Task: structure prediction
Amino acid sequence: MSAAEKSRVAPLFLLGSEQFKVKPATQSQAAIPAPAALVQEVLQSWGSGAIFLDASSLLSAPGQPHPLISIAASARASGLALVPVANLGVSPQYIAAIQAVDGVDSQGVCLRVDMQEAFSVSTWLQQWPFPTSRTDLIIDFGENVAMAAALGALLDAMFQGINSFGAWRSVTMAGTSLPQNFTGFTAGQHLIPRVEAQLWSRLTSLPLPYQLDFGDFTSVTPGVTPANIAWGYPINVKYTLPNSFLVLRGVRTTGPNAVDMDVQLRGHASGIVVHASRNRLANAWSDNTIDQIAAGTVGTKTLEHWVQLGVNRHIELMHAILP
Result:
């Protein structure tokens, strides 16, 4: 991604124990502690632009401060701007860690609430230990974005009044229309309307007393990917269009009527290239790579690579179409 595109994006990382581990020593390098390894990876992959980090699922050793403290210290030493993220159910220890980090960095805090919590601000705001003026609020509908959109005028009124109890530093609406899996989808191409983008567009047309920012989960879903998936599963690809997600549903790679993964991925790339609503982005790494895969000039690579292609395409497209 270009620097201009990155400047409009603030990534929110949900950090779990599987992503917070010591980087083992090698023959040429000593082991790197988990906080430094995390910061190093962010700097290499994203750069030093501001990030949001939710480390609330991490546990601290008995008698030790929450790991957020050491992560923030490593980020500070490396010039990485870090805004801690919380939800209303986090532990007092995690809140104390955020307060300690904010006392040094003065970056404020981000609060992520669900739909029910967004409608009941008056019942919990007095217990929120940070001023709204230093809190970025994310109203995250997750996979319930269609349910939220169906509320119509009730939802409009909530967004119009969300600053009634104090103006938030920023307000973001987030959600996704992608299902957790594609069970029940037949092999072939499917279009899933991007309700989250449509809802954001409608809400921003209201006379809101603030700027409503847009957030989503790119082309992945908010759930945790199941562990130990058996080889042979259908080969699927997701590609973002301006108004829909294009899902290219594959078949299994083992058993009756199986098709090799490389063959399926090449076919998915070809299907994307000729899709009538593609809206190809000339300078996007993802679109250029998909064109090359379809033409057979580069290999299809791995499914992880295709997740990277999907995420890159999604962010590049949103940069191009958002005001």
